[in-house]
Specification:
There is one protein chain. The chain has 457 residues and is of the alpha+beta class. It has four domains: 119 residues, Beta Polymerase, domain 2 (2-Layer Sandwich); 123 residues, CCA tRNA nucleotidyltransferase, domain 2 (Poly(a)-polymerase, middle domain, Orthogonal Bundle), CATH 1.10.1410; 123 residues, Alpha-Beta Plaits, CATH 3.30.70; 40 residues, no CATH class. 43% of the residues lie in helices and 21% in strands. The protein is built from 16 helices and 16 strands. The strands form four sheets. It has a five-stranded mixed beta sheet, sandwiched between helices. It has a four-stranded mixed beta sheet with strand order 7-6-8-9, covered by helices on one side. A four-stranded antiparallel beta sheet has the order 11-12-10-16, with helices on both faces. Helix 7 packs across helix 8. It is globular.
Length: 457
């Protein structure tokens, strides 16, 4: 980024920071609540259990109005994981009973408890974990989190914490912030590591705009290497080695789509710094049906909604299954000669939807690719198998059969899905509904948001 672009970028960053950085009053209020909750927990748990604050609030990188409060109950090493989880949940419930609040049991690698305490107006996740000094001693991945907080707090300046906030906001605007499976984006910790590694947001964006894969980033040593052997060892072509655990890829949850989007956004900003890149995908829910209808009309595409009921399980479990089923359906359509432009999994409560968008297609015949004509046995078997074909032809020494299509349109393929594709774990195709060019009112917002995310960079 040249000097004039750097100057323009800094003006934009300073302007955005006014919108996204918590005010002194908000920080003071949240700090008061955290300290109050810390004292409450300290009085609830035994003296050998340490109460420690983690998350973006503890690191000073939270956005305005979005202070996630994570409280870790750190047990001595002698406790088994099963016992510390059991006790941690009991301590959380005990505090809720005392303060007349409420709680939810949540699940990550192991259960934790989310407290809602009206007495101090706070929502917080209480996570039981083992107290460790080195990641090698961890029993589960959550044990590592306090070490992340220690590293970031010892590594980032005040200005860099603000630049983490701006990076988070930029990624949010483009739908690629968040490590949950549904998003496949950049976690808060990843944002912190990138700013630490590159030193500033403008340098980070400049570097991201020039990414070449495979790429291994080592934030602890501020080093980058292009090593295919190391890439294979991590089973990824984009690796950010966790500074507190050299065996972990902190970028493991970042999908290729999210990484690709980030590279394009970075290129756009470096080429022409613009505040507009930080404010995207905003729309009024009252106008969404009209916006959706306009998009579909202008695209000229047919829409297909395949809806099935989801079980009462975590979205981190059901969403990957929904996405995989979508890929299987697209593969099945393409094997039958149909093109699909966009495929998107969408969730709405307990409803799992696979949205397909495709050009209007009527197929009365299709070309089936066979073997090379010089592979005599294979060619003979291919012609025998398709002896009812309308004809055969050779293209670049490859044999093809022209035969009548079993399905004339995508709708007929989808109706036949239950007999052609097996249900995938929790996604039951036998009970699925198929809607063609129809959009239920209650799904419009979720569908349009997903289309915007998929088609806007």
């Amino acid at each position: 980024m040249d000097k004039s672009a750097e100057k323009a970028a800094q003006k934009i960053f300073d302007r955005i920071l006014v919108d996204i950085k918590p005010s002194a009053e908000e920080i003071q209020d949240t700090t008061f609540k955290v300290n109050k909750l810390t004292n409450m927990l300290a009085q609830t748990v035994p003296k050998n259990v340490e109460v420690r604050v983690a998350g973006s609030m503890a690191r000073g990188t939270n956005l305005k109005g979005d202070a996630d409060i994570d409280m870790f109950l750190l047990f001595p090493s002698g406790f088994s994981n099963e016992r510390l989880v059991k006790l941690g949940l009991e301590y959380g419930k005990k505090l809720v009973k005392k303060e007349k609040g409420r709680y939810e049991i949540k699940y990550a690698e192991h259960p934790y408890i989310r407290l809602y305490l009206d007495s101090i107006g706070v929502k917080a996740d209480i996570v039981p974990a083992s107290k460790i000094e080195d990641a090698q001693d961890m029993k589960t991945a959550v044990d590592r989190t306090p070490l992340h907080t220690e590293f970031i707090n010892s590594s980032l300046t005040s200005r860099q914490r603000d630049e983490v906030r701006m990076l988070k906001y930029l990624l949010k605007a483009h739908g690629i912030y968040g490590a949950e499976v549904k998003t496949g984006g950049f976690s808060g910790y990843m944002c912190e590591l990138l700013i630490h590694h590159y030193g500033s947001l403008s340098k980070a964006l400049d570097s991201v705009s020039k990414f070449k894969l495979p790429l291994i980033i080592e934030p602890r040593f501020k080093n980058e290497i292009h090593d295919e052997d190391l890439s294979r060892r991590f089973n990824s072509d984009f690796v950010v080695i966790d500074p507190v655990d050299k065996t972990r890829n902190a970028a493991a949850g970042v999908s290729h789509e999210s990484l690709g989007r980030f590279v394009i956004v970075a290129r756009q900003f470096v080429k022409k710094p613009s505040i507009d890149l930080f404010y995207r995908n905003r729309f009024s829910s009252t106008k969404v049906r009209g916006l959706l209808s306009k998009f579909l009309t202008n695209s000229g595409l047919d829409t297909f909604l395949i809806e099935s009921k989801l079980p009462d399980k975590s979205e981190d479990i059901t969403f990957p299954q929904l996405r995989k089923m979508g890929r299987l359906i697209v593969d099945h359509l393409e094997r039958n000669g149909f093109s699909v432009y966009l495929s998107m999994p969408v969730t709405n409560g307990r409803r799992g939807i696979i949205l397909l968008m495709a050009p209007k297609q009527i197929l009365k015949s299709r070309m089936l690719k066979g073997p090379n004509v010089f592979v005599e046995d294979a060619s003979h078997r291919f012609m025998e198998k398709h002896k009812g074909a309308m004809g055969f032809t050779v293209v670049d020494l490859v044999l093809y059969a022209l035969e009548k299509s079993k399905y004339q349109d995508i709708k007929s393929v989808l109706r036949d899905l239950p007999s052609r594709l097996r249900s995938h774990k929790d996604i039951n195709l036998s009970n699925a509904k198929v809607l063609v060019n129809k959009m239920p009112k209650e799904l419009a917002v979720d569908v349009y948001a997903e289309i915007l995310k998929k088609t806007t960079i």
